[in-house]
Design goal:
- This protein has about 120 residues and is an alpha+beta fold.
- The chain is about 20% helix and about 30% strand.
- The chain has one helix at about 1-25; strands at about 30-40, 45-50, 70-75, 90-95, 110-120.
- It has a five-stranded mixed β-barrel.
- It is elongated, with a radius of gyration of 21 Å.
- Mean pLDDT is about 80; it is low at about 55-65.
């Protein structure tokens, strides 16, 4: 009787684990309005200004730890059609802690990010 009860409890725990894993979705960064400032110090890198006037991000959905606030960032995977100074678009960005541009000391360093998706371009 104990072994049957143990097996039932084991199956219930496995079912609970399976259901909890199936409900989890990958956190996706919210879409932010950005303006392309221009090229950064290294070829292929572009400086973006995140256009969040008050810095609160209250209108955003899908908040996650590390969500970017207003300010300047740099990226090396900006889509080709957005690589023009003054271009405004809505992009989903995430921090890039793996690498960044190699700039000399006389340049301002901005946090490196990756473009996860283009939500819309104006």
């Amino acid at each position: 009787m104990k072994s049957v009860l143990s097996i039932i409890v084991l199956y219930l725990l496995l079912a609970l684990l399976l259901v909890s894993c199936a409900d989890q979705e990958e956190a996706v960064p919210a879409c932010l309005q950005v303006e392309v400032v221009g090229p950064d110090c290294e070829a292929g890198w572009y400086v973006l200004q995140i256009m969040d006037a008050d810095g609160t991000g209250e209108q955003r959905s899908n908040q996650y730890i590390g969500q970017l606030q207003s300010g300047f960032v740099t990226t090396d995977n900006l889509p080709e059609d957005l690589r023009h100074s003054g271009k405004v678009a809505y992009l989903s960005l995430e921090r890039n802690a793996d690498y960044g541009p190699r700039c000399t000391a006389n340049y301002m360093m901005f946090p490196p990010v990756r473009v996860k998706q283009v939500c819309s371009d104006e």
